[in-house]
Amino acid sequence: MKVLMINGSRREHCCTYTALSIIGDSLKEEGIDAEIVFVGRDAVNGNLNALIKSLGEKCAEADGFVFGSPVYYASLTGEIKLVLDHLFGSHRDKMRCKPAAIVASARRAGTTATLDVLAKYPAINEMPIVSSSYWPMVHGNTPEDVMKDEEGVGIMRQLGKNMAWMLKCIAAGKAAGIDAPNPPDYHKTNFIR
User: How crowded is residue 9: how many other Cβ atoms within 10 Å of its Cβ?
Assistant: First the structure.
Protein backbone atom coordinates (compact mmCIF):
# COMPACT_ATOMS: atom_id res chain seq x y z
CA MET A 1 0.00 0.00 0.00
CA LYS A 2 1.10 3.54 -0.72
CA VAL A 3 0.03 7.04 0.25
CA LEU A 4 0.70 9.97 -2.08
CA MET A 5 1.29 13.21 -0.19
CA ILE A 6 1.16 16.50 -2.08
CA ASN A 7 3.17 19.38 -0.63
CA GLY A 8 1.58 22.64 -1.79
CA SER A 9 4.18 24.93 -0.22
CA ARG A 10 6.38 27.32 -2.16
CA ARG A 11 9.32 26.05 -0.09
CA GLU A 12 10.10 22.40 -0.65
CA HIS A 13 11.52 21.42 2.74
CA CYS A 14 9.81 23.77 5.15
CA CYS A 15 6.93 23.40 7.63
CA THR A 16 4.38 21.59 5.45
CA TYR A 17 7.05 19.12 4.38
CA THR A 18 7.89 18.56 8.05
CA ALA A 19 4.25 17.78 8.87
CA LEU A 20 3.96 15.42 5.90
CA SER A 21 7.23 13.72 6.87
CA ILE A 22 5.88 13.00 10.35
CA ILE A 23 2.80 11.42 8.79
CA GLY A 24 5.02 9.47 6.40
CA ASP A 25 7.13 8.13 9.27
CA SER A 26 3.98 7.04 11.08
CA LEU A 27 2.72 5.28 7.95
CA LYS A 28 6.05 3.48 7.50
CA GLU A 29 5.84 2.22 11.08
CA GLU A 30 2.55 0.62 10.01
CA GLY A 31 4.13 -0.97 6.91
CA ILE A 32 2.74 1.54 4.40
CA ASP A 33 4.87 3.40 1.85
CA ALA A 34 4.57 7.16 1.49
CA GLU A 35 5.80 9.59 -1.15
CA ILE A 36 5.88 13.37 -0.83
CA VAL A 37 5.56 15.27 -4.10
CA PHE A 38 6.50 18.96 -4.08
CA VAL A 39 4.35 20.88 -6.55
CA GLY A 40 5.38 24.46 -5.74
CA ARG A 41 7.65 25.28 -8.65
CA ASP A 42 6.03 23.18 -11.37
CA ALA A 43 2.57 24.58 -10.63
CA VAL A 44 3.56 28.05 -11.80
CA ASN A 45 6.59 27.85 -14.11
CA GLY A 46 4.96 26.46 -17.26
CA ASN A 47 5.16 22.80 -16.25
CA LEU A 48 1.62 22.42 -14.93
CA ASN A 49 0.42 20.04 -17.65
CA ALA A 50 3.41 17.72 -17.20
CA LEU A 51 2.98 17.88 -13.42
CA ILE A 52 -0.72 16.96 -13.62
CA LYS A 53 0.05 14.09 -16.00
CA SER A 54 2.72 12.76 -13.63
CA LEU A 55 0.45 13.15 -10.60
CA GLY A 56 -2.36 11.39 -12.47
CA GLU A 57 -0.09 8.38 -12.98
CA LYS A 58 0.84 8.43 -9.29
CA CYS A 59 -2.85 8.71 -8.32
CA ALA A 60 -3.64 5.50 -10.17
CA GLU A 61 -1.05 3.66 -8.07
CA ALA A 62 -1.83 5.33 -4.73
CA ASP A 63 -4.17 3.83 -2.14
CA GLY A 64 -4.55 7.04 -0.14
CA PHE A 65 -3.69 10.73 -0.21
CA VAL A 66 -2.64 13.62 1.99
CA PHE A 67 -3.01 17.17 0.69
CA GLY A 68 -0.92 19.74 2.57
CA SER A 69 -0.56 23.49 2.40
CA PRO A 70 0.92 26.27 4.45
CA VAL A 71 -1.22 29.29 5.20
CA TYR A 72 -0.62 32.25 2.88
CA TYR A 73 -2.84 35.28 3.38
CA ALA A 74 -5.24 33.33 5.61
CA SER A 75 -5.83 30.50 3.14
CA LEU A 76 -4.11 27.77 1.16
CA THR A 77 -1.45 28.55 -1.42
CA GLY A 78 -2.38 29.38 -4.99
CA GLU A 79 -0.07 26.57 -6.08
CA ILE A 80 -1.94 23.80 -4.28
CA LYS A 81 -5.31 25.20 -5.37
CA LEU A 82 -4.21 25.31 -9.00
CA VAL A 83 -2.85 21.76 -8.83
CA LEU A 84 -5.89 20.32 -7.07
CA ASP A 85 -8.32 22.10 -9.43
CA HIS A 86 -6.59 20.52 -12.41
CA LEU A 87 -5.88 17.17 -10.78
CA PHE A 88 -9.46 16.62 -9.65
CA GLY A 89 -10.74 17.94 -12.97
CA SER A 90 -8.80 15.42 -15.03
CA HIS A 91 -7.96 12.45 -12.75
CA ARG A 92 -10.77 12.29 -10.20
CA ASP A 93 -11.64 8.74 -11.30
CA LYS A 94 -8.20 7.57 -10.11
CA MET A 95 -8.84 8.98 -6.62
CA ARG A 96 -12.53 8.19 -6.14
CA CYS A 97 -13.31 6.21 -2.97
CA LYS A 98 -9.69 6.27 -1.80
CA PRO A 99 -9.12 7.85 1.63
CA ALA A 100 -7.62 11.31 1.91
CA ALA A 101 -6.36 13.53 4.68
CA ILE A 102 -5.63 17.24 4.75
CA VAL A 103 -2.94 19.18 6.60
CA ALA A 104 -2.23 22.87 7.19
CA SER A 105 0.85 24.54 8.60
CA ALA A 106 0.99 28.10 9.86
CA ARG A 107 3.07 30.49 11.84
CA ARG A 108 0.00 31.69 13.68
CA ALA A 109 -3.52 31.65 12.18
CA GLY A 110 -5.54 30.90 9.04
CA THR A 111 -5.38 27.14 9.43
CA THR A 112 -9.12 26.45 9.69
CA ALA A 113 -9.83 28.42 6.50
CA THR A 114 -7.08 26.46 4.74
CA LEU A 115 -8.43 23.14 6.00
CA ASP A 116 -11.94 24.09 4.92
CA VAL A 117 -10.88 24.62 1.31
CA LEU A 118 -8.62 21.55 1.21
CA ALA A 119 -11.42 19.31 2.54
CA LYS A 120 -13.75 20.24 -0.29
CA TYR A 121 -11.71 18.33 -2.87
CA PRO A 122 -12.00 14.84 -1.38
CA ALA A 123 -15.49 15.57 -0.06
CA ILE A 124 -16.93 16.03 -3.56
CA ASN A 125 -15.09 13.01 -4.93
CA GLU A 126 -16.46 10.33 -2.59
CA MET A 127 -13.15 10.03 -0.78
CA PRO A 128 -13.36 9.12 2.92
CA ILE A 129 -11.66 11.88 4.88
CA VAL A 130 -9.22 10.59 7.48
CA SER A 131 -9.18 12.63 10.65
CA SER A 132 -6.88 12.78 13.64
CA SER A 133 -7.28 13.54 17.33
CA TYR A 134 -7.64 17.30 16.68
CA TRP A 135 -7.49 19.68 13.72
CA PRO A 136 -4.73 18.46 11.36
CA MET A 137 -2.41 21.44 11.68
CA VAL A 138 1.04 22.32 12.90
CA HIS A 139 2.39 25.68 13.99
CA GLY A 140 5.81 27.21 13.54
CA ASN A 141 7.81 29.49 11.30
CA THR A 142 10.56 26.93 10.65
CA PRO A 143 10.76 23.12 10.58
CA GLU A 144 12.49 23.31 13.96
CA ASP A 145 9.55 25.29 15.35
CA VAL A 146 7.12 22.70 14.00
CA MET A 147 8.98 19.95 15.85
CA LYS A 148 8.54 21.97 19.07
CA ASP A 149 4.75 21.98 18.52
CA GLU A 150 4.32 18.78 20.53
CA GLU A 151 0.57 18.63 20.08
CA GLY A 152 0.85 19.23 16.33
CA VAL A 153 3.50 16.52 15.99
CA GLY A 154 1.28 14.12 17.94
CA ILE A 155 -1.70 14.96 15.72
CA MET A 156 0.37 14.24 12.60
CA ARG A 157 1.55 10.91 14.04
CA GLN A 158 -2.02 9.93 14.86
CA LEU A 159 -3.16 10.99 11.40
CA GLY A 160 -0.64 8.55 9.90
CA LYS A 161 -1.88 5.76 12.16
CA ASN A 162 -5.51 6.53 11.32
CA MET A 163 -4.72 6.53 7.59
CA ALA A 164 -2.96 3.17 7.96
CA TRP A 165 -5.96 1.75 9.84
CA MET A 166 -8.37 3.01 7.16
CA LEU A 167 -6.25 1.54 4.35
CA LYS A 168 -6.03 -1.83 6.11
CA CYS A 169 -9.80 -1.83 6.70
CA ILE A 170 -10.45 -1.11 3.02
CA ALA A 171 -8.01 -3.87 2.00
CA ALA A 172 -9.76 -6.30 4.36
CA GLY A 173 -13.11 -5.32 2.91
CA LYS A 174 -11.90 -5.88 -0.64
CA ALA A 175 -10.49 -9.28 0.38
CA ALA A 176 -13.93 -10.15 1.77
CA GLY A 177 -15.59 -9.20 -1.53
CA ILE A 178 -16.78 -5.73 -0.56
CA ASP A 179 -16.18 -3.32 -3.44
CA ALA A 180 -16.51 0.45 -3.58
CA PRO A 181 -19.97 1.66 -4.61
CA ASN A 182 -20.61 2.32 -8.28
CA PRO A 183 -20.16 5.90 -9.46
CA PRO A 184 -23.31 8.01 -9.14
CA ASP A 185 -25.82 8.01 -11.96
CA TYR A 186 -27.87 11.19 -11.93
CA HIS A 187 -28.31 14.35 -13.93
CA LYS A 188 -26.70 17.50 -12.67
CA THR A 189 -29.15 20.25 -11.85
CA ASN A 190 -28.99 23.35 -14.01
CA PHE A 191 -30.61 26.41 -12.46
CA ILE A 192 -30.63 28.32 -15.76
CA ARG A 193 -33.79 27.84 -17.82
Answer: 23
State pLDDT tens for residues 36-93. 999 988 888 889 999 999 999 999 999 999 999 999 999 999 999 999 999 999 999 9
41: number of Cβ within 10 Å: 12
Instruction: Determine the Cα–Cα distance for residues 148 and 144; give it in Å rounded to an integer.
Output: 7
Letter for the amino acid at 86?
H
DSSP for the chain, please give it: -EEEEEE--SSTTSHHHHHHHHHHHHHHHTT-EEEEEE-TTTTTTT-HHHHHHHHHHHHHH-SEEEEEEE-BTTB--HHHHHHHHHHHHHHGGGTTTS-EEEEEEESSS-HHHHHHHHHHHHHTTTPPBP--SS-SEEE-SSHHHHHH-HHHHHHHHHHHHHHHHHHHHHHHHHHTT-PPPPPP--PPP----
Answer for the pair 14, 147: CB distance below 8 angstroms, yes or no.
no
Convert the pLDDT of each residue in 135-146 to its tens digit.
999 999 999 999
Taking each helix axis as running N to C, give the angle between helix 78-91 and helix 111-123, from 0 to 180 degrees, rounded to the nearest 10: 10
